[in-house]
Design goal:
The protein is of the alpha+beta class. Helices cover about 40% and strands about 25% of the residues.
Length: about 170
């Protein structure tokens, strides 16, 4: 009887020899999957952070373009031609070439607003009476870009120019 028990025991041990190899492979697969998950999550955070930085740089570039537009705005339509060398419109302009050469802005030519009021009267500007004064309104689209992060921000801005006499406005 003991020889039958020994034979069964040896057969049982012989059939379980590969279980250690299978267990080791399963452990490696689980650890590999965990490592891939950790790498994916950490690079996802980097992608989100990178996109945020790029959006902020593009927004800052667009804001610089709005400041440039306000500073150099002239209601004379002849200055709005992008082909004119002195015009600031329709050209890609770098914000700060020395410190951040990848951030730039482009200012679209001003136009009358597509909705809203083109001319706004300024009440109480002239106390002599008989003269109507006001402000002409324009719209322009300023696009800020950052080439390093491939981001872009667009701002549609309104510009008021005045005071202008009412009788000089062409409706």
């Amino acid at each position: 009887m003991s020889s039958i028990n020994n034979r069964n025991r040896k057969g049982l041990l012989a059939s379980q020899r590969g279980i250690a190899l299978i267990t080791a492979i399963m452990a490696c697969v689980i650890l590999f999957a965990l490592a891939v998950l950790i790498i994916y999550l950490s690079t996802g955070d980097l992608r989100v952070s990178s996109r945020t930085v790029g959006d902020k740089k593009a927004g800052s570039a667009a804001e610089s373009g709005v400041h440039q537009l306000v500073r150099h705005f002239d209601p004379d339509h002849s200055t709005w031609d992008p082909d004119d060398a002195d015009s600031i419109y329709g050209k890609k302009i770098q914000v700060d070439a020395e410190n951040d050469s990848s951030s730039s802005f482009e200012i679209g030519p001003p136009a009358r607003p597509t909705s809203g009021i083109y001319f706004r009267h300024i009440a109480g500007y002239d106390i002599t009476g008989g003269k109507g004064w006001g402000m002409t309104n324009y719209e322009s689209v300023v696009t800020g870009q950052n080439d390093h992060y491939s981001t872009e921000t667009t701002i549609t801005t309104g510009i008021g120019y005045g005071p202008v006499k009412t009788d000089t406005i062409l409706e």
